[in-house]
Amino acid sequence: MVAFIALTLTAAVEQGVVNSGRVNAQEADDGALQLIVDNFLLARNMGDYDGAASWCTPLLELQDIEEDWFVDQAVTADWLRQLAQQYLIDTIEQPHVEGKGVTWTERLTQRGPFVREAGPARMTVVVHAVIRDGAIAYLSGPYPPLPLRNVPAATGQPTYVSESNVSRGVPPAVLFMGCAVGLALLTVPIAAIGRVKGRRRPT
What domains does the chain contain, in order, with CATH numbers? Predict the structure, then answer.
């Protein structure tokens, strides 16, 4: 009986150690994810936009209130610069881990005189970041639309700006097929007319 109780206690202690190890590992993982976002925001708030962009993947998926883009680090840095120049950014809810990402809330206030065309004077933005391979790979929030400039990248590094969702325009292949079909339909009546003209009336 004593031996059975001892074995039971030993198993319970070992299970507790295993569970504790899993919790500590999860806390360490969550802390690493949040640290990446904290460093990203710290650099951005200090005006080090290139430094902030370095905490993102070489090709970041960026989603604002209107579009979804793939941008490189040079374009990411310029987008952050424009955002900070046009808006005063206050973090009203600190970054925290949610699932496999990190979420925080910011308040954006237009700098200088209010410009209606630039959007509301003040807005609240809930931001979500997904971390992959130690960097921010996806950044999403209803940010106001800002022009994505093709900023020259470092030597040997291509500048990449591409819309990742379905284009609103007509794809070139569809335009080509439409033109080809239109020409084919136009050729048929013209050829028929030519055959009619070429026939001789019986005498």
Answer: 2-171 (3.10.450.50)
